[in-house]
Design goal:
heterodimer, A: about 170 residues, Alpha-Beta Plaits, 2 domains, 5-stranded antiparallel beta sheet, 4-stranded antiparallel beta sheet, elongated, B: alpha/beta, Rossmann fold, 3 domains, 6-stranded parallel beta sheet, globular, binds thiamine diphosphate, binds magnesium ion
């Protein structure tokens, strides 16, 4: 077998029983086996069934990505592991809160750029804004980069959430 | 399933009994006293008191591996639980089904650094297949049964249930959940029809096929070994086994090439290297097997049958992965092979066997027992010859003696061989042997041991006496951590740092002090007599066999080398120095 060692970025959705320690299991798996985590988000998505959805963005060779999925799948509280990158089209979003402090022209420029990026100001004082922006990771990166010279103070990001396109359930 | 009101400890015992458990290996302490009290007040469940909790897990492993049942351990919180960690890791690496009950401080004290508190679920998360902390009484019966299901299903492994003391004492209802289906954990048992057909036709059309089988065959149950035997016979192909797989195919059969890997036979390793089709069954291509990965079996297609999808394409990319229980998949393959009247290419097979027989004629395990010093290989070969017709189980410690045991003791049946393969835990063999003996009181159980390993868990000698477990510890005593000494010779210029077993107790006197019998052989002509006496004595025995201190274990594929770069003996050691990349590997 010819082995492909190009590094790929994958977004993986994992449905788990929302029980104590489940996140530690997932994170421990990644750190113990030396896999990358670019982003990880988790929240309960079905309170009646007690199910949480974890979205992990990771990178590795195709063999490593396959391993990651197999390793996740064998954790006992895991219901399903779906590789959104390979299984059909999906959409990804990330949300960030970005605090920018400044006066005068810089303040005007920050507002102008926020407008272009469709970021909303959700808090404002005489000397600062907090913007809410959502979109693809690259878009958030670009926005944060542009805010840097305009008085960037703080960034809080959710990490990526993703969902398959079309009508079917995960 | 109307429940009856009981306390947590009684619920635990009821659940154990309903899971068919007859023996628990354990050690008491404050946090588990309520369970001990409940054990005291019944007489269906036997408790074997060990001398250190590490021994309890290895005993349960020996019990499990020799019976195919789940081994059960009971230890207290804090140090009891942390002492169990080595055994749990061992069981995880070798896929041994264990349920380990650990005591815990009461729920309201968890997180307060209470006396004998340890974050047991945190510590054991990476060394168990799964673990639980029971915080609500109503979860206890379900968790107890679920733990057994998880431990034995799919690829087996150890499961920890951490039990706060208030749960052990609180009142609750017992319900039998042993038949309840698990919400998420449902391993794939059977393979798809097209995969099976593809696999069978690949075998039929191969010119140089080789079966490479491991512990998964044993875990699947004795029937899997039978089916494997049938398939191998039908195809006429050669077969090699991993350390964990020994016994899955009869070692005395002529299609068996011996063990493969770092200390495997010349013929098995070269057949791996030259095969055009490798049929991996319940084996995981670990680094002891593959040697240098980029040179591993370079011209072969590979079929990999395993119940654990994460074992497939982990180290080695394969052409046809088949996820399923080995026994069921072999069943399916046999049926297709017979129905469609497949045949292997007779001409190609003849050429393949003639090649293999050339390799065999190297006689790679030969040794020279001409002098007056006992060769360790000779000692183990004599042990085999003297016990081969008996109902006998063998355990080992870790080191050269372990590899010689694997090379020279021929297993014709599964479940007769217990060794620490994945973790390589010195001190495994004695407690494991006691666990085997407890399960098979009438059988002969021998721990093939090294003197250094024996010292690691020798406190369990006392357990053997208490439970009248007449285990035999057969020590190839070279006064060295022989395997360490061998690596120092090979890799570190013969500078034997700390590998001499200094201040070794007189093992015969030690035996006597512990109410065992101690025997000793110093010359080759004494070996048979000592073995016979050891077998005949109906008590635990140490047979202290003084062997050549300088003998090394060959063949050897040094770390970082390919299968065809094997060292066959001391002559090769000098002429093929180990590469720098090899030096960093273990
Ligand atoms: C718990 C543990 N510590 C250290 C090692 C490393 N190690 C592997 S073999 C060995 C020496 C074993 O010596 P002995 O039991 O006398 O066996 P021999 O190799 O001499 O047959 C050591 C120290 C190990 N495998 N396990
Ligand atoms: Mg030794």
């Amino acid at each position: 077998m010819v082995v492909d060692d190009t590094i790929e970025r994958h977004t993986i959705a994992v449905l788990v029983d929302n029980e104590a320690g489940v996140l530690a299991r997932v994170i421990g798996l990644f750190s113990g086996r030396g896999y990358n985590i670019e982003s990880l988000t988790v929240a309960e998505t079905d309170a009646d069934e007690g199910i949480s959805r974890i979205t992990i963005v990771t990178s590795g060779t195709p063999m490593i990505i396959e391993q990651i999925k197999a390793q996740l799948d064998r954790l006992v509280p895991v219901h399903r592991v779906v590789d959104l990158t390979t299984e059909g089209a999906s959409v990804e979003r990330e949300l960030a809160l970005v605090k920018v402090a400044g006066k005068g022209n810089k303040r005007v420029e920050a507002l102008r750029i926020a407008d272009i990026f469709r970021a909303r100001a959700i808090d404002s004082t005489n000397e600062s804004f907090v913007f809410e922006i959502s979109g693809a990771t690259e878009k958030l990166n670009a926005f944060v980069d542009l805010m840097e010279p305009l008085g960037l103070v703080d960034v809080s990001r959710t990490g990526v959430v993703a969902i398959a396109r079309g009508k079917s359930e995960l | 399933m109307a429940g009856k009101s009981m306390n947590g400890s009684e619920i635990i015992i009821q659940a154990l009994l309903n899971e068919g458990v007859d023996t628990v290996f354990g050690y008491p302490g404050g946090a588990v006293l309520p369970i001990y009290d409940a054990i005291f007040q019944q007489n269906q469940l036997r408790h074997v008191l060990v001398r250190q909790e590490g021994g309890a897990v290895h005993m349960a492993e020996g019990y499990a591996r020799s019976t195919g049942k789940v081994g059960v351990v009971l230890v207290t919180s804090g140090p009891g639980a942390t002492n169990a960690v080595t055994g749990l890791t061992d069981a995880l690496m070798d896929s041994i089904p264990i349920v380990c009950l650990t005591g815990q401080v009461p729920t309201h004290l968890i997180g307060n650094d209470a006396f004998q508190e340890a974050d047991t679920t945190g510590i054991t998360r990476p060394c168990t297949k799964h673990n639980y902390l029971v915080k609500r009484m109503e979860d206890l019966p379900r968790v107890m049964h679920e733990a057994f299901y998880v431990a034995r299903s799919g690829r087996p492994g150890p499961v920890v249930i951490d039990l706060p003391k208030d749960i052990l004492m609180g009142l609750g209802q017992y319900e039998d959940f042993s038949q309840v289906e698990h919400r998420t954990y449902q391993p794939t048992m059977k393979a798809g029809k097209s995969e099976i057909e593809k696999a069978v036709s690949m075998i039929a059309s191969a010119k140089k096929p080789l079966f490479y089988c491991g512990g998964g065959v044993i875990n699947s149950g004795p029937k899997a070994s039978k089916q494997l035997g049938r398939l191998v016979k039908l195809t006429g192909a050669p077969i090699t086994l991993t350390l964990m797989g020994l016994g899955a195919y009869p070692a005395t059969d002529k299609q068996f090439l011996g063990m493969l890997g770092m200390h495997g036979t010349y013929e098995a390793n070269l057949a791996m290297h030259d095969a055009d089709l490798i049929v991996a069954v319940g084996a995981r291509f670990d680094d002891r097997i593959t040697g240098r990965l980029d040179a591993f079996a370079p011209n072969s297609e590979k079929i990999h049958i395993d119940i654990d999808p994460s074992s497939i394409n982990k180290n080695v990319a394969v052409d046809l992965p088949i996820v399923g229980d080995v026994g069921s998949v072999l069943d399916q393959m046999l049926r297709v092979w017979k129905d469609k009247e497949f045949k292997t290419n007779a001409r190609a097979m003849k050429a393949w066997w003639s090649q293999i027989n050339d390799w065999r004629s190297m006689d790679c395990l030969k040794y020279d027992q001409s002098g007056s010093v006992i060769k360790p290989q000779f000692a183990i070969e004599r042990l085999y010859e003297n016990t081969k017709d008996m109902d006998c189980y063998i355990t080992t410690e870790v080191g050269q003696h372990q590899m010689w045991a694997a090379q020279f003791y021929k297993f014709n049946e599964p479940n007769r061989w217990m060794t620490s393969g994945g973790l390589g835990t010195m001190g495994y063999g004695l407690p494991s042997a006691i666990g085997v003996q407890v399960a098979h009181p009438e059988s002969l159980v021998v721990d093939i041991s090294g003197e250094a390993s024996f010292l690691m868990n020798m406190q369990e000698m006392s357990t053997a006496i208490q439970y009248r477990a007449p285990v035999k510890v057969f020590i190839t005593n070279n006064q060295y951590m022989g395997m360490v000494r061998q690596w120092q010779e090979l890799l570190h210029g013969g500078r034997y740092a700390e590998s001499y077993t200094d201040a070794l107790p007189d093992l015969v006197k030690l035996a006597e002090a512990c109410q065992w019998v101690g025997l000793r052989a110093k010359r080759p002509d004494e070996v048979d007599d000592v073995i016979q006496e050891m077998i005949e004595i109906d008590r635990p025995v140490i047979a202290d066999i003084w062997v050549d201190q300088t003998e090394n274990c060959f063949p050897m594929i040094p770390s970082g080398a390919a299968h065809n770069e094997m060292l066959l003996g001391p002559e090769d050691e000098a002429s093929k120095p180990v590469s720098e990349e090899g030096m960093v590997l273990v």
